[in-house]
Amino acid sequence: MGKNENWRNWESAEAGGSPFFNADFVILISFAKVESIFAGGEKYAKIKPNQCLIIKTMEDNFEKIVSFGKRRGFVFPSSEIYGGLGGFYDFGPLGVELKNNIKKSWWKFMVQERENVVGLDSSIIMNPKIWEASGHTENFTDPLAECKCCHKRFRADHLMEKEGEEDFEKIKCPECEGEFIPPRQFNLMFKTFIGPVEEDAGKAYLRPETAQGIFVNYKNILDTQRVKIPFGIAQIGKAFRNEITPGNFIFRTREFEQMEMEYFVKPGEEDKAFDFWLNERMRWYTDALKIKKENLRIRKHDSEELAHYAKGCADIEYKFPIGWFEIEGIASRTDFDLKQHEKYSGQDLKYFDPETKESYLPYVIEPSCGVERIFLAALCDAYEEVEGGRTETTEAVKEKEALLKIDKSLAPIKIAILPLVKNKEPVVSKAKEVYKELGGNFQCQYDETGTIGRRYRRQDEIGTPFAVTVDFETLEDGAVTVRNRDTMEQERIKIEELKNYFFQKLN
Ligand SMILES: [Zn+2]
Predict the structure, then answer these.
(1) Interatomic CA distance for residues 478 and 71, integer angstroms
(2) By CB distance 3.0 to 4.6 Å, which of 88, 281, 313, 502 could disulfide with 331?
(3) Residue 206 Cα, ligand 1 centroid: separation in angstroms?
(4) Residue 137 Cα to ligand 1 middle (Å)
C-alpha cells in the first residue's frame, strides 16, 4: 500500500468510508452523536458524543506482517506496475503454496476424513435466477444509503416508507441520527454479460458466495451419490463482492476464495448439528492448523443480528494485531435456500427418507470461511522476531531475526537444500542430486547464495521446517546435515534414508 492508497482511504473516510489507514495513528474527532466506528464493515470502537478519540488502526505488528508478506513473496498488490487495483491482491510463489496448503488441509478435514461429505466444484457464473431465488438480486440492487457517521447502510426506499417521508434528505440515520450520503445504486454483485451484446437478456453475475452452487446441485448429488441424510456438500472456490470499502490488506478484498459446506439434516436435528460443527471447525484451527488457542474465540450472534431466515449463527474470531475479527461463520440456515430454489425452479427438492417413508426439505448447517483471512491469521500467529538473533554466531547477534513458526503442514517450503559452498562442483552437483530426489515428493527450495548461517535465517523467516546441508563430508560418507527450524538441532542422515526420514517427519 503506497501513498496513493492512504490518500484514497482518507478521502473515503471523509466521504463515509472505512476509517482505516496505513498509518500508526488515526485521529478522529467526533462532532456529532457518533456512537460507533466501523472498520471495513466491522464494529471497531465506540465513541461517546463530542469526544476526541485516537485510534491506533494498524498496529506495528500488523504493518510488519504486511511488509513481510510483500518482501518475501507471499502477497503482492494486484497489477502493481500499473498502480494497483483497490481490493485485489496477487499471491506470490510462497503465498500460493500457503494458500494451497490451507485448502488441502480443509478438504482433508471436511471431505476426505468423512464418509458423509462429498465435494463439488460449481461454476462462478450461473443462471441469474439463482440470485433472485437466494435474495441477492433484490437485496443488493436497491438504492442504498450509507450513514456518514456510523457507516451503517440502509435501503433508502425502506427508510422513506417507514418514516412516511417523500424527501430522503430529511431522513436521519435510525442508529445514530447522523446524516446520509445521497443514496446510490449499489450492487455488491459484479455484473457481466453473456454473449456479444450487452443487453439485459445476457446479464449475469460473478457469484458473491459459493453456497448457492451447492444448493442448486443438491438434487444432482442426491440422485447420483447414494447419500443419506445427514450429509454434507463441500466446495472451495472464488467469490466476488464489490465492496465499497475493501481494506485491511487481504482481510476484505473484492475477489476472494471461500471454503464452504452445506450440511443437510432432518428438521429438528439442526441444533445438535450446529453444535457439532461449531466444535469441529474450532478443532480444525487448533489441531490441524495449530493456531494458538488463546488467539481464537467463538462469538454467538444475538437474535437481532441474525438474517431473517437464520436460526442461529456463530463466528469464530481470531485475535489479529488490530483486534478480534471473524475468520469463519457457522450458520443454521433452516430450509430457506432449498425452499426458495424449489419455488423459483419449480423442481421438487424434497428428500425421501427410505426408512421412515417421509418426504421433507432438509435443514442446513453452513460452516463458511475465507482462505485469505485464514492465510492472514496463520501468518500473524506464526510470525516472531527475535532481538539479537537465535544463534550464537557473531553475524547473527547483531541483528533481529525473523522466524515463521508455522505448522509444517502449512509451511510453503518443506525442505531447503543447501550446498555448503557454491564454488566446489562435486558439492554443488551432490546437492542438486538431493534436490532432484526430494523435490518430486516435497516442496523444496535450492539455495546456494550467501553464508550458510544467512541461508538458515532466510529459511527460518519463511517457515521452512527443515534444511539439508550438503558439505565436503557428504562426498566421503554419503550423509547430509538436517537442521530443524524450531530446535535448531542438527542430525546426520544418509542420503538414501532421506526420503523416508522426511515422509515420517512431514506426514
Ligand atoms: Zn448512523
Answers:
(1) 36
(2) 313
(3) 30
(4) 25
Residue 239 backbone dihedrals phi, psi, to 5 degrees: -140, 160
Query: In this predicted model, what pLDDT tens digit does every residue of 379-430 receive, in sequence order?
Result: 999 999 888 777 766 665 567 888 999 999 999 999 999 999 999 999 999 9
**Torsion on CA atoms 497, 487, 371, 146, rounded to nearest 10:** -170
Q: What are phi and psi of 199, to 5 degrees?
A: -130, 165
The residues near 195 (Cβ < 8 Å, ≥ 6 apart) are 202
The per-residue pLDDT for range 222-278, each reduced to its tens digit, is 999 989 999 999 999 999 998 766 677 888 899 999 999 999 999 999 999 999 999
Query: Cα(333) to centroid of ligand 1, in Å?
Result: 29
Q: How many Å lie between the centroid of ligand 1 and the Cα of residue 34? A: 7
Task: Please tell me the pTM assigned to this model.
Answer: 0.81
CA of 14 relative to ligand 1 center, distance in Å: 14
Measure 470 CA to ligand 1 centroid, in angstroms.
64
Q: Give the chain's domains with CATH numbers.
A: 113-128+200-379 (3.30.930.10), 403-506 (3.40.50.800)
